[in-house]
Design a protein that fits this description.
This protein has six helices and eight strands. By secondary structure, the protein is an alpha+beta fold. It has one domain: L-fuculose-1-phosphate Aldolase, CATH 3.40.225.10. An eight-stranded mixed sheet has the order 3-2-1-4-8-7-6-5, with helices on both faces. The chain is globular and about 55 Å long.
Amino acid sequence: MSATTLNEIVKWSRIIYGKGYVQGPGGNISVREGDQIYITKHGVSFQDLTPEDIVQVPLKKKSEFDGSASVELPTHREIYKVTGSKAIIHVHPIYTIALSLKTKEIKPLDVEGLFHLGEVPVVEGSPGTYLQAKAISKGLGDNKIIVVRRHGVFSAGETLKEAFEKIEVLEASAKIIYLCKNMDKGNF
């Protein structure tokens, strides 16, 4: 396994945890190198993640290590196959999840959200299932970010930094939408 890739995954897991985009052992990160995927193991916390908490699996077929990988491995595989991306982050940002319960797409009100993301689709899905993987890969669109209702965000990019920045912009947009809705009700 590439030590550089493992260290990048660990670095970004700590940044993501510090931002509060995951809670407990939730979320997962992967990086694709050629026909191999490096992905966080099932049930590990981003706060305590080490290189030993990352498993290497093939992109196109199942392996003996699939069982220790995140349950979202099928979704990561499908996103890589459809988009050609090299990095995927799946997290559970609170404001974005709250909005996913009330809408079929998140339409940013702020300039940054509109410019960098546009409208972000919200799809139905059950974690780790083939149906969720298909719904996500089909709905990702050009901006390569999507929300699964009640569950969280999948963001893909050429790097973990690129995937993370989209999540950060989306969560900021979700907070702005939430604040504006409360201000409209006189709750400010």
